Structure formats: C-alpha cells, structure tokens
Amino acid sequence: QVQLVESGGGLVQSGGSLRLSCAASGIIFSIERMAWYRQAPGKQRELVAAITSGGSTNYADSVKGRFTISSDNAKNTVYLQMNSLKPEDTAVYYCTQSDPFRNYWGQGTQVTVSS
Question: How sure is the predictor about 27, in pLDDT bands with cuts at 50, 70 and 90?
C-alpha cells in the first residue's frame, strides 16, 4: 500500500536551515496536492505549506519568506526548505499527499530549533 517516508528533520540552532523530504511509494493515483503540517505540544495542528499539481502554493503567515515548498511530481516527492529557523518552529512536522480518493500521511519527523 501507499507509504510516505520523511527525512531531514533534526536539531538545528536558531537562524539555521533544514530541508525536509517526503517520498511516496506504492500504488497511487495521480497526486493532486502535497503539503506539510506541524504540531507543537499543547497546540493545534496547523498547515505550514501546500502545493498543488498545478504548482500553486500557499503558506502559513508565520513562515512566509522563510520556508519554501517544492515538488518533484515524477518522483512523488515533496520538499520543505526551512531557512532562518526560530525556536517557535519547533514541532513535529507531517507530510501529506492527496490523490482523488485518499489523504496519505507520513509518520512525522521532529524538528527542534535551539535558542
């Protein structure tokens, strides 16, 4: 079945950068949307960034100008380049990819930004 595998999370100092990757494998219909969400302790899960198959993107206000989402549709892979990281970016980040029938979720990867 479909599996999403994330990589790139870890510990970074304030002001540093990380690049997250999420690759999907298995039987998948055409992917219409890819996105990254995050959830910090005691807070609701929030959308960080999303990209459609047509290339349209949107971002949370808190990350605009710092994060960039991109995709390689041929590889069913989505990336999140995170620059100028802040301690408030610390959270578990989740990848999603959606086809016409289902939403698929990654296992989550921890991003910790130290001050």
Answer: low
